Each structure stands twice: as C-alpha cells, then as structure tokens.
Amino acid sequence: MSGNVVIEYFGAGLILAGGIISVLSAIGVVQFPDVYTRAHAATKSATLAVLLTLVGALVYIWVTEAYISVRLILGIIFVFITAPVAGHLTIRAAYRSGVDLAKETKEDELRKVLLSKNEES
Q1: % helix / strand / coil in the chain, to the nearest 5?
Q2: What is the rounded CA–CA span in Å between residue 25 and residue 106?
Q3: How far, in Å, CA of 13 to CA of 25, rounded?
Q4: Would you call 108 helix, strand, or coil by DSSP?
Q5: Mean pLDDT of 42-46
Q6: CA distance linking residue 44 with residue 20, whole number of Å
Q7: pLDDT mean over 33-62
Q8: pLDDT for residue 119
Q9: pLDDT, averaged across the chain
Q10: pLDDT of 118 above 70
Q11: 74-84: b or e for each residue (b if 16 or more CB lie within 10 Å)?
C-alpha cells in the first residue's frame, strides 16, 4: 500500500466521520427538549461535520488530483467563522424574546447577568 492510498483512505475517513456526526447532529435536533439545546446540536456538531467533510474532500482531491482547491479552503474558513456566530445570534434572539428554557434546566445564569446590567444603567 503506497503513501497516497493511505492518505486517500484518511480523506475518505474524514468524509465518513463528517457524515456520521451530521446524522448525530440531526438526531440531536429532533430529540432535544428546547430551542437552546437544539441550536447547540445544530451549530456545534453540524459545524464539525461540515468541517470534517470539507477537510476530507480537500485532502482527497489534493492526493488524487495533485490540486489544492482554494474554494474548499474558503468554504472551510467561511463555515468555521459564520456557523458559530449564527448559532449564537439565534440563541440570543430566542432568549431575549422570552422563549422558555426546558423543564430540566436547573439554573439560568444569564438572567442574573442581565438583571445586574439593567440595575447598573
């Protein structure tokens, strides 16, 4: 087995891992009880899944075609920057709109912070 074949399998393994994590993320979005945990599953694990898939594709194309795709690199950077920010803003909008936390939530730490900031101003 040559070195290129091993790296091809590594790239394919990254793509497979990205697919598995994507499925787990979808299960989390369906199973979790409230918007906050669902958004967490959607942004964190889906971001990891997309990044693994894109890095796997980049490695595979680099080895098989001897070509480094700038589009894939830009896609990796774009997803890495925008997906967590979008998830944060979605959760922040839901919290400020008054969406209830799950019944299982024991403590709302953000409420204390927001109340202390409102008292200061």
Answers
A1: 80, 0, 20
A2: 24
A3: 18
A4: coil
A5: 85
A6: 14
A7: 90
A8: 66
A9: 87
A10: no
A11: ebbeebeeebe
> Is the Cβ–Cβ distance between 62 and 21 less than 8 Å?
no
Query: Under DSSP, is residue 66 helix (H, G, I), strand (E, B) or coil?
Result: coil
**CB-based burial, 34-71: b 16+ in 10 Å, e otherwise:** bbbbbbbbbbbbbbbbbbbbbbbbbbbebbeeeeeeee
Is residue 116 exposed (0-12), middle (13-18) or buried (19+ Cβ within 10 Å)? exposed
| Three-state DSSP state, 87 | helix
Encode 4-53 in three state secondary structure. Answer: HHHHHHHHHHHHHHHHHHHHHHHHHHHHCCCHHHHHHHHHHHHHHHHHHH
Q: What single DSSP character describes residue 97?
A: T
**What angle in degrees, to the nearest 10, is found between the helix axes of 3-31 and 46-65?**
160
Domain map (residue ranges) of the chain: 3-120
